[in-house]
Amino acid sequence: MIPIVINGRIRHKEEVYAYVEKIAKELNIHRFRTKPIEINIVRHCDGSYGNTWGDKDEGVEINIARYRYDQRIAYSDMLKTLAHEMVHAKQYLRDELNGYKDTWKGKPCHRLMKKKWEDQPWEVEAIRLEDKLYRKCWKGN
User: Beta-carbon neighbour count of residue 121 at 10 Å?
Assistant: First the structure.
């Protein structure tokens, strides 16, 4: 099983661990035993709900915000954001997205990064899968 660490305050932390493990299995990254996923529950993420950074060799760090513009983020939205960011984790761990080389599936992505956020191919995939993963993997639904 992929090593998962959750730092910070979040309700039902043990259930969140199980949720992340289910998502990892759905994304077929659950067997990456040497590539940890570190999840930080933070107060703010620069105006976003969350972000992810990593690579295929070092593993992945995910930040999930509890507040956005001083408005508390609903628990369900935090979990959906976590599903979205786990898709990015998969992209980094499988070297589909490489932030150090600025590549998407082996090709330079400079022009792609000029598109609107939601039109970038790595975001299209994460947006497409976030609700599906949330509904399938969170026991509360």
Answer: 15
Domains parsed from the chain with CATH numbers: 4-137 (3.30.2010)
pLDDT tens-digit profile of 77-122? 999 999 999 999 999 999 999 887 788 898 887 776 677 878 889 9
- Angstrom distance (rounded) from CA 65 to CA 68: 7
User: Which DSSP string corresponds to 76-133?
Assistant: HHHHHHHHHHHHHHHHHHTTSEETTTTEETTEE-TTGGGS-GGGSHHHHHHHHHHHHH
Closest by CA to 60, choosing from 15, 108, 20, 26, is 20
